[in-house]
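can u pls check wat happens w/ heme C
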Amino acid sequence: MASHWIDIVEMLLRWLHIITGIAWIGSSFYFIWLDNTLEPPEPGSDNAKKGVAGELWAVHGGGFYNPQKYAVAPASLPDNLHWFKWEAYYTWLTGTALLVVVYWLKAQVMMVDPTVAVLTTWQAVGIGAASMVGSWLIYDALCRSPLGKRDALLGGIVFVLLSALAWGLAHELGGRAAYIQVGASIGTIMAANVFFVIIPGQKKMVDAMRAGLMPDPLDGKRGKQRSVHNNYFTLPVLFIMISNHYATTYSHPYNWAILMLMAAAGVSIRHFFNRKHKGVLAWQYPAIGAALLFTVGWWTTPHLVPLPKVEGPVTFDQVRAIVGERCVTCHSPVPTFTGITQPPAGVLLNTPAAIAQNAQRLYQQVVVTRIMPLGNVTHITDYERAVVAAWIAAGAPAK
Ligand code: HEC
């Protein structure tokens, strides 16, 4: 019963995380587009005199909109000023709660992979938590250092440091967990940018104006820089959110490098759109992105690990025995493996019919990607993998 309600909570958190994430990333895309598309008003016009730095016209949902951006701030502030922050905070809160429910509470199954490193539950969770906090502290210190004035160099260094993080996590945790923890670190940086820099800066500007003073443009500039960083983080983070469906990426021997290639492709493609908003069609960026994505496709082509030779014909009973011993603790209607509350991925392997039906998927997981049994917790041998391969080669007879 309790495990059922944990599953329901997980489902609702996932739903909410996507909803708030869409709201946040959607507004990030919108405001970057807005900023890049604004046109300066005619010199000497009323708008120019009011301090408007740029404006545009748009039509949407049957209405016409005319947003204007002030160089620093308008002469007086309206009473009703809209802020954008809750979508960021809720995305982080739901994402972190999801991380705890899906990964941290089941760390032995979902995070620890003895073939990568032998860790206790607390070590795995500690590494995950430390990577999130540490990433923010280092990133924030870099942005505040003199490097903060050199955008391209700063971007490059952040990329190299995130690669180091991905490398480190991939050498401590199972691939899926390493990916998710890199995503959680980037997500933490993004939400902390809003919480610690963008919103406080805006508050200072508003307070100054309400006190009849001129706001410090530096607060605006600093917020803008973090907001642009967040914009470039979006595509890599979105890939990480869906990466757990693509075992060929996270189970690759160089999974951290695959992740960074995907991230670089995302940043490059995002950059194309940001340039395009300014009217520049810089096709080299999507071309770089496409080349990187192709590299990932090529590099993740499965290579079968050589398996021992199997003597004689393989019978279905042999396969059943292997599956019974190595798989059904998790893949049955009521799994007995601690931490697994329902058949993972909905895959049942507890009856002959179910094994026959899942023959191809079973082969994929056991022989091709070698992801199952997860972290090889049930100690399948290479000989047994070879039996599965021989069974498939013989047409997967179910008798
Ligand atoms: C410790 C528990 C555990 C054991 C043991 C285990 N699995 Fe899994 N299996 C999982 C989990 C968790 C997932 C879900 C992974 C995901 O969501 O991508 C999964 C997913 C799968 C899938 C679906 C993957 C896909 O996306 O198509 C297959 C097929 C599978 N397992 C086969 C096996 C086979 C065959 C064995 C035995 C050799 C096995 N599993 C042993 C936990 C386990």
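Residues 109, 244, 323, 326-327, 329-331, 337, 340, 344-345, 347, 349, 358, 361-362, 365-366, 372-374, 377-378, 380 surround heme C (CB under 6 Å).
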